[in-house]
Automatic annotation (TrEMBL), chains A, B:
The gene is recR. Keywords: DNA damage, DNA recombination, DNA repair, Metal-binding, Zinc, Zinc-finger. SUPFAM superfamilies: Recombination protein RecR. GO terms for biological process: DNA recombination; DNA repair. HAMAP family: RecR (MF_00017). Belongs to the RecR family. It holds the Pfam family Toprim_4. This is Recombination protein RecR. May play a role in DNA repair. It seems to be involved in an RecBC-independent recombinational process of DNA repair. It may act with RecF and RecO.
Length: 197, 197
């Protein structure tokens, strides 16, 4: 096997969920059938790792100092949705009709890993709430232990600045069958039941 | 979402088995945690698509005109193993103690797709058998309809040049349970049973 090929297989392994076998398949596939696409991927990737930084308003990925969403005049500046990651932000943007702005923590509070409020940009968030433009802080951190702790902290900050905090609803997923829903979710959904009209 | 990020997600989709969601995850992962690895992948990939060609002896991938295996003095030049793809060649090299040489078809006979003997290098293979160095042609094409047709064709070429053709054994996989083996394999294994000593 050629040494450059070995290097290519090894290099593919940085991708998430890609082990030795998949990396091999990727390398062979590109060399056999996708040289043009491979050339393009190499160029875009080299460009992106150098030039994609973070938006100084929302901390999402952005080439420009301020991302397109934050710069847009069409978005409602009174609502701010806080998410843990760019992927979460994208999921909400694609699934909902939300027209407000976002704030991307790029993480969650995790004192044991040395991730405190500063590391996830909460000083900057507090500053922003102090400006008075935001009326509602939509807390969309993940429903994990760390995400919940972060949510509580965010709610506190919001109240300190007289901003109304809200939280995504948790419960049985649509189309899910009760039988297969995990106990924690089912228990929460049962406790949070609402009256039918 | 930044446009360079969108381009990166799109570029990742050339990889086998990578759809929109996985491409997103890859792009975010590289930008969040693997910029150095991403830089390296971009460089190696750009290099590989330009410089990795095919060995002129065995048609496997190689940077040099003749690959390391074909150039090696330690390999047995009397045995030649024919495989469909570089991945098949690697699988045999890693799983068996085979010390002979290889010939990589980079495909299989498929007249309907316009893939005839020339396209998979059989003219070059015949030439090589005519040189008289090879004594055994080990036919390791896949046990599919096209792979079997290719195997028969290869056996004919071998016999024309007084080379002994052989074929990998087919049957029940080791560790497999009869109950779960497909009918074709089971039927073949039953028909090809051998006497126990």
């Amino acid at each position: 096997m050629s040494s450059l090929l070995e290097q290519l297989i090894e290099a593919f392994r940085i991708l998430p969920g890609v082990g030795q076998k998949t990396a091999q398949r990727m390398a062979y596939h590109v060399l056999e059938r996708e040289r043009e696409g491979g050339r393009r991927l190499a160029a875009v990737l080299a460009d992106a790792v150098e030039r994609v930084g973070h938006c100084e308003r929302c901390r999402d990925f952005s080439e420009a100092p301020v991302c397109a969403t934050c710069a847009s005049q069409a978005r409602d500046r009174h609502q701010l949705c806080v998410v843990e990651s760019p992927a979460d932000r994208l999921a909400i943007e694609q699934a909902t009709g939300y027209r407000g702005l976002y704030f991307v923590l790029q993480g969650r509070l995790s004192p044991l890993d040395g991730i405190g409020p500063r590391e996830i940009g909460l000083d900057r968030l507090a500053q922003r709430l102090a400006e008075g433009e935001v009326h509602e802080l939509i807390v969309a951190t993940n429903p994990t232990v760390e995400g919940e702790a972060t949510a509580h902290y965010l709610a506190q900050i919001a109240r300190q600045h007289s901003v109304r905090p809200s939280r995504l609803a948790h419960g049985v997923p649509l189309g899910g069958e009760l039988e297969y829903v995990d106990r924690g979710t089912l228990s929460h959904a049962f406790g949070s039941r609402s009256e039918m009209e």
